[in-house]
Amino acid sequence: MEEIELTHDEKIARSKKQMMWFGIVSLIMMFAGLTSAYVVSRGRKDWVEIELPEEFFWSTGVILLSSLTLFLAKKAILNSNKKGATILTIITFILGSTFVFMQFAGFDSLVNEKYF
């Protein structure tokens, strides 16, 4: 069998790809473990049903919207639209700040309802 000599850059690219796959598999395993723990724990007698505060649902929409504005800002940069990129970046920052505020408000609601 013939050995192929890889260049330094090819070795680095190959290593990065392999590490990415290790990361993806690790995340899948962690998610599966946490899901399994949730399913098993939910069947216990001492399980407490918690209704999530409304702030968490709204913050999900806010963070998704901020992802969209960040994507559009990147497109504006690639199209050399400096003004559009600036406006979209500012909107993204405001949405990100709103997300953080809503997370604090949601956790504050959980603490006020004595879920801690």
Automatic annotation (TrEMBL):
InterPro entries: Cyt_c_oxidase_su3-like_sf (IPR035973), Cyt_c_oxidase_su3_a-hlx (IPR013833). Its EC number is 1.9.3.1. GO terms for biological process: respiratory electron transport chain. SUPFAM superfamilies: Cytochrome c oxidase subunit III-like. It comes from the Bacteria. This is Alternative cytochrome c oxidase polypeptide CoxO. It is an enzyme of class 1 (oxidoreductase). GO terms for cellular component: membrane.
